[in-house]
Automatic annotation (TrEMBL):
Top-level taxonomy: Eukaryota, Metazoa, Chordata, Craniata, Vertebrata
Pfam families, alphabetized: Methyltransf_23
UniProt entry tagged with the keyword Cytoplasm: no
InterPro entries reported in the protein's UniProt record: HHMT-like, SAM-dependent_MTases_sf
Positions bound to substrate: 28, 299
Protein name as it appears in the record: Histamine N-methyltransferase isoform X1
Gene Ontology process terms (BP): methylation
GO MF annotation list: N-methyltransferase activity
Organism: Geotrypetes seraphini
Amino acid sequence: MASSMRSLLSDGQQYAETFHEFLNHSTEHQCMLEFIEKKLPAIVQRLAKICKEDNCAALLSRFANRKSTIEILGVGSGTGEIDLQMISQIQTHLPGVLLNYDVIEPTQEHILKFKDLVAKTSDLKNINFTWHMKTSSEYEKDMNETQESKTFDFIHLIQMMYYVKDASSTLKFFKSLLASNGILLILIISGSSGWASLWKTYGHRLPLNDLCVYITSSDIKNMLDEAEYKYTYYELPSEMDITECFVEGSKTGTLLLDFLTETYNFEKTAPPDLKAEIMDTLKQPECSIIRDGKIIFNNTLTALLVEP
Ligand SMILES: C[S@@+](CC[C@H](N)C(=O)[O-])C[C@H]1O[C@@H](n2cnc3c(N)ncnc32)[C@H](O)[C@@H]1O
């Protein structure tokens, strides 16, 4: 690995910019929204301990009568678009229920955008946000130091497990924060995605460090199996248009390449042989398909629901 390559996470602003480009060029959030629309009502239903009946709306309103506050924790929530969609779904199904919504998010730019979005969303009612501008391990450390014993009904770790030092102990920590009947949702890149092939081949030559770990749903499943946790999972097909990465001088392409390699300024800092190999691999069938002249990267995600 060339010494000048460094992790994208080492520069919060660049990270935020590349993430923004990634969202603009992928169906990442669309596939999450589909999952939220189709599956979240059932998740809330399970939270309500009333799984055996058929009429979801009726069940949810019974839950609303029973429980007046739901504690939710979003970890690595980013700029909050997905969180707000989940909030909207939960509130649609549980009108009048108060949501206490904690957010753990270390990137200041993301917290600010999330707060902006909250301020702009006019129909947000019955919700209290608590912002923790820190990493999940800092949060864990603070919880341990203060011996706080807060629990949550719903905790989600969406596309953030790459950024923790010890994924297995992070999973155990957040599972330990679940209230009885609480649900832990993990959304992560699928072991069958283009990312998995890319990382398997090149992970060791990219600036893998404390800040980023190339893990996929296959690794998470192994960890959950090892811990003997029960879970269900769903594959969520998604794609990313990486055509711009092959357009000479494209700013968008440069940012997308940074995001794909998790490397700050990959184009300028990567050794030429590594760059050539990665550019070639990105076009191969294990990573992408060619459709209508565009290069479409396999961005399939996996949603894992861990039982309490
Ligand atoms: C790929 S983004 C996903 C954001 C959001 N969940 C979504 O899917 O739109 C990853 C987020 O995790 C945050 N993050 C990075 N390291 C983290 C850590 N150690 N603990 C918690 N969040 C972290 C980043 O700042 C970023 O906002």
